[in-house]
C-alpha cells in the first residue's frame, strides 16, 4: 500500500510543488487549502497519477480542522507524513505602522493553524510510528531578525521551538519532526505579503536567483524518505546569493 502525505497550503508555491513531487513517487495525498478551484484543479491534475483527496480547509478554524481530519475517507486516514506548510506574511512595514488584524491573521495561521493540524493528526502518526514525519515549514526569518518581520519572524521562531519540543514529547514513538527553514523563494508569498501588488512582489526577486518551490519540494521528499532511524531536526536552506547583513546602527 502507498504511503499518504497530508499537506496544508497545497494550492500554491511549496505546497503545490510538494504535492506534485510526492504524486510522481506514487504517494497518496491529502491536499488542503482555502481556494477550492485551485484545490480541485490540482486534484484533477494529480488524480491520474495517484489517489488524491482535496480538503477545503482554513487551518485557523480548529473545529473545522478536527472535523475534516476525523472524516477523512478510509484510504486517506493513515497519514505517514504531515507537512505543515500553510502560512503567510503580511504587513511588510514597521510594527508601529501596521494593522493589528494582519498580525492576528499571521498568528492564527502560522502558529494556531500548525497547532490545530498537528494536534488532530498526532494520534494517527503515533499509531503508525516508525518512519512517520511531521515537517514544519519555518523560515530563516525565525532565526534572523530584519525590519518589517515582527510577528512573521516570531511566528517562524515558534515553528522552530515547537518542532524541537515536539521531538521531546514524541521520543520513543518513532515519529520524526523537522523544522525546514528556507530563505527567499519565489512563490506567491511576496504577492500575498504586498497585498496583491505584483510590482512590489517581483522586486523581491529582481536580479537575483531565489530558491524555487521545486527546490523545497525536493528537500521535503529527501527528509520524508530517510531511513527510519534518522531525524533531521532543522534544515536552513538559502540561495547562494543570500547571506546576512551587518547590525543596523542608528546615528544622529
Ligand atoms: P504561497 O503564498 O505560494 O502559498 C501559501 C499557501 O498557504 C497557499 O496554498 C495558501 O492557500 C495557504 N494558506 C494560507 N493561509 C491559509 C489558511 N488560513 N488555511 C489554509 N491554507 C492557507 O507561499 P509559499 O509557498 O512560499 O509559502 C509556504 C510556506 O513557506 C509558508 O508557511 C511560508 O511562510 C513559508 N516560507 C516561504 C518562503 C518564501 O520565500 N516563499 C521562505 C520561507 C518560508 P489558500 O490561500 O488557498 O488557503
Ligand atoms: C520568508 C523568507 O526572507 O521573506 O520566510 O523572511 S523571508
Automatic annotation (TrEMBL):
Protein name (Swiss-Prot/TrEMBL): Oxidoreductase
Keywords: Oxidoreductase
Domain Ketoreductase: 3-187
GO molecular function, one term: oxidoreductase activity, acting on the CH-OH group of donors, NAD or NADP as acceptor
Pfam families hit by this protein: adh_short
InterPro entries: KR_dom (IPR057326), NAD(P)-bd_dom_sf (IPR036291), Sc_DH/Rdtase_CS (IPR020904), SDR_fam (IPR002347)
Entry-linked PANTHER family: ALCOHOL DEHYDROGENASE
Species of origin: Marinobacter salarius
Family that this chain belongs to: Belongs to the short-chain dehydrogenases/reductases (SDR) family.
UniProt keyword annotation of Transmembrane helix present: no
Record keyword Oxidoreductase present: yes
